[in-house]
Every structure is written in C-alpha cells, then in structure tokens.
Amino acid sequence: MKNYLIPLAVLLVAGCASQPTGPEGKLRFAIDSMKRDFQAKGIAGMDRLEADKLLQTCNQTGNKPKPDVAEAIEAEQAVAIRLPADGTHMGDWKEGEKLAQSGRGMTWSDKAGQPNGGNCYNCHRISKNEISFGTIGPSLVGYGKLKGTSLEAQKNAYSQIYNSKAFSACSAMPRFGHVGALNEKQIKDLVALLLDPESPVNK
Amino acid sequence: MKKRIMAAALVSLCGVLGLSFATPSLAQKKDETIAGIEKYREMLGDDNPAELYEMRGEAAWKKPAGPNNVSLEKCDLGLGAGIVKGAYAQTPRYFEDAGRVMDIESRIAWCMMTVQGISEADMRKRPFGSADKPSLMEDLVTYVVTASKGFKIAPPNTHPQEKAAFELGQSIFHVRAGPYDFSCATCHGQDGKRIRLQELPNLTKAADNQRAYIGWPAYRVSTSQVHSMQWRINDCFRQQRLPEPKYMSESVNALITYMAVMATGAEYKGPALKR
Q: Which of A10, B101, B106, B166 has the greatest number of beta carbons closer than 10 A?
C-alpha cells in the first residue's frame, strides 16, 4: 500500500540504482518488477511467475534458441511425456469437439476443481463448419486425412497436445498435459477429434 | 433527454445481442452481433454512452470532496494546475512531485490523495465498476480523456524515468510465464492474427498501437460499461493466466507507457465504442 506514496525508495531498491542493461539484465528487471507488482488472485498464485528452465531459455533468446539448445530442450520435454498406460490414444471425437470449443479454465476468475477447456479454436481452424476460429496456430482441417490413424500418428497427436515443446522448443502452444491442464481422457478425446475418420475435421 | 434516448438504445441493443448469443450458428452470431452494433451506432448517431460517464465525471471533478473538501480543479495533470484540456494526450509522463511515471488514472488518483486528502486504501477500494454501478474513477477518467479529443497522442518520453518505463514495458510485453507459457506477444506479436473472431493488434508495431491505443478507454457493448486502459491491461493479464497486476503499479504503468509511446502521433477521438 505505502509504496504508492514513497515510490522513490522503491525505485532505488528495485532498479533506479542499477538501471538494467543488456537483454539479460532487462529480462531479470522485468520479472523482478512483475514479482513486486502482482498479487495472487483466485486460483492464479504468484508461483505462476516462476519460469521453468524452458521458459527461461525462450525468454532469454526471444524464442529463438540456437539449434543445438532447441534440440536438447525438445528431447528433455519429450522424455517427460506420459502416454496412456492402456495403450489406447483415441477417445470420443464429439467430446473432443466440445473441449476444443471451450476456452475456459486457468484464469483467476475460474473456479478450482472445474475441468479446463482446450482453447483449441482460439488458435486453430479445426472443423470446416466452425467459422469462429483463431489463426495463431495452423489450420488443422483434414489433419487425420493427412496423418492417418496408425499407432504412430495417434501417439504423435497425443504428444503434440500433451507437450507442444517436445516438437518446437518455444512453441506458442501451451503444454496441456505437461502442466496438468488437460487429463488423459480429455487428450484422447482431442486426438479422436483430429484423427477419427468420422470426425468433422476429416469429413 | 439524451440520457433517456441512450438508455432506450441500450435496452434494445441488449435485446439484439442477447438474441444473437442464443443462436447456434456462429457465422450468424457474428453477423448479428455486428449488425446489432451498427444498428446501435445508427440509433445513437454521434453519441456514445461514455458521454454519461463524462458528464458525471465533470460534475465529480468540480465538486468539493474528500477530507479536505476541495474539488479536483487544482489537480496538475502534467500541463499545469487546473489544465485538463489536452493533458491526457501527453501521458504517461514523469511527475516531479510524485517521483514516478504515471498514467492518467494514477495521476487522477494522486490528486484525489494529495489534493482532496482521500486515503490510499479508500482510493483503491473499487477501481473497476460494473454496468449498473460505475466506479468514480471510471467517471473521472472519461471526463479527463474526453478533454483530449482532437489532440495527438504525445507522451514526452524524454525524462530518463520515462525512457526506463518504456523499456520496462517493452520487456514485460515479451515475458512468457504462467501455466500456458503466454506473453502479451504470444497474442499481440504478429500481424493479422485472431483469437476466434477477435482481431489482435500487433502491439510491437506503431500502426497497430496507434489504432489500439486510441480505442481506450472504451464503452464496451458486451459489458455495457466504460473500461479504462488499466482495466484492459488487467483483463489481458487474466487471459494470460497470470496472477493479478496491482492497480496503477509500475509494471502496468510501464506497459501503458510502452503502448502510448508506440502510438505517438495518432489523433485521439475520445472514448471508443467497442464490441
């Protein structure tokens, strides 16, 4: 509260005395400023400002790590992927479509313990007949026709949703399984949406 | 009279939107929503419900209040005590008396505290209002920004602290964090992208910043109220899945400074009407 009225002291402590230089210094200063200026709200705790090693690297390199670094990151993320123990990867595409449509979850206005949506249409075109789609990610129309339904294709789609960073180190796509935003059944339903020949994605 | 016309327009628009949200086809939904907003604009002519906020804000600005029982007319918004006209267009800026870079809301709050003697706790109680109960700040800010209609956005960006704020804002814009690994740039870092049907300005570029910055504060039809730039940043951090940035904190003011400087030269046209 008080710091609003005594900003000089804060500034001196937080950075005025050591004006950050260079990309590393500026990044550290930005994160320190955020840690000072944010507060936990609802389910969104302050721990969310702690970047893991991957994000640190992406932030430090402007999302363009050197090829060997990127490869090492991708391998590290890949080994942490947990494929379903029962060996099946395709669920119900109708449930998958509902999940892909839902953008809810993980914000401070969402309730704890409620299942998260997939947010997929926020970034992807998926079913041809859904015209409300985002364009941050590529179109996934016809994805199953392109990739087929082999075990390999299923594992790949499952892994992509589980952890996009196993394929592209600093991908804009969230790591849905890795961070526990989507569970095994949900990811299976999404794999079915993408690959099932009966899904509107492939019709 | 004007007030009543606007109220009537609001009710009928809510009808249009309510109807459209209940229809199953999203294509239809978009068309109807846009048609609804257009119809609404037609009914209002040049009016925007933000005018009601402006009128209330002007009255609140000129009315003695707070423990000191004085009005805000002596408030220095950067161009000298008592000058409101054009002041918003030259914020955020460094204020010697406060020793920090302030956006327009922070400065108004500063005046409420230092001129009127209102406590910081009281000032912070309810920054963001609701449709049926706008906050005092929303009224005041609408009044103050409207007085910059026709002025070009021109934050000074000359004082070392102003430059530091720009740099901090630019850095924060690119920090990825949270469960979804998002930064502002994830959604606002490329040209011509969308989330669903909502177009995303590329806020790393001047032209898009100019368009986006003059759109705020805005009267949002979807929430039936005026929202400030502090609110806009707050809600985007929510979408970023981060914890909440404190109201008027250095980090938020730095982001606003970054966007304002990037938007330099754009003509401010007063509070916008938005989806």
A: B101
Among candidates B124, B177, B192 on the partner chain, residue whose Cβ is nearest the Cβ of A55: B177
Which pLDDT value is given to residue B275? 82
pTM of the model: 0.91
Joined tokens for residue A189: 């339903």
Within A102-150, residue ranges assigned H as helices are: 120-123, 143-147
Domains of chain A: 2-69 (no CATH), 93-202 (1.10.760.10)
CB–CB contact B193 A135 (8 Å): yes
Q: Residue A104 CB: number of other CB atoms within 10 A?
A: 15
Distance, in Å, from the CA atom of A98 to the CA atom of B251, rounded to the nearest integer, reads: 37
A32 touches chain B (CB under 8 A): no
For domain B44-274, give the fold.
Cytochrome Bc1 Complex; Chain D, domain 2 (1.10.760)
Q: What is the pLDDT of residue B8?
A: 40
For chain B, which residues make up each domain, given as ranges? 44-274
Distance in angstroms between the alpha carbons of the first and the last residue of chain B: 25
B236 is catalytic: yes
Q: What are the φ/ψ torsions at residue B224 (nearest 5 degrees)?
A: 55, 45
B86: left (phi over 0), alpha (psi -120 to 50) or beta: left
- Provide the pLDDT for residue B179: 98
- Chain B residue whose CA is closest to A25: B171
Beta strand B218-220 with B225-227: parallel, antiparallel or unpaired? antiparallel
- What average pLDDT does range A153-177 have in this prediction? 98
Name chain A contacts of B192, Cβ cutoff 8 Å.
135
pLDDT band at B45 (very low <50, low <70, confident <90, very high): low
List the 147-166 stretch of A: residues with Cβ below 8 A of B: 165
CA distance B102 to chain A (A): 11
Contact A181 B180 (CB under 8 A): yes
Q: Give yes or no for residue B11 having a pLDDT over 70.
A: no
Q: For B215-227, how does the pLDDT look when each residue is reduced to its tens digit (9 = 90+)?
A: 999 999 999 999 9
What is the arithmetic mean of pLDDT over B213-240?
Answer: 96
ipTM of the complex in this document: 0.92
Contact A136 B190 (CB under 8 A): yes
Smallest Cβ distance to B242: which of A7, A36, A44?
Answer: A44
Average pLDDT, chain A: 92
